[in-house]
Predict the structure.
Amino acid sequence: MSLKILDTCVNCDVCEPACPNKAISLGEEYYVIDPALCTECVGHHDEPQCVVVCPVECIIIDPDHTESPAQLELKYRSLMTKESAA
């Protein structure tokens, strides 16, 4: 599953640097998460770091981008392979 930032985001800037996959960026109005890069921190941490640091608790599981733990692990491995090849 990918995560999603709700419109209650206050643009506090703490989630973006916490993301090990660089999946978070500033959107037009508030921060957004790229589902192609979000692994919910699988492979990096035991829990999603953006959720841990978010002071307004506006980050949820994105129902439009559901993935199993195995799929998240595969995505993590693919991202790491691409990163090491760059």
Q: What stands out?
A: The chain has three helices and four strands. Residues 3-85 form a domain with the Alpha-Beta Plaits fold (CATH 3.30.70.20). The longest helix spans residues 69-85.
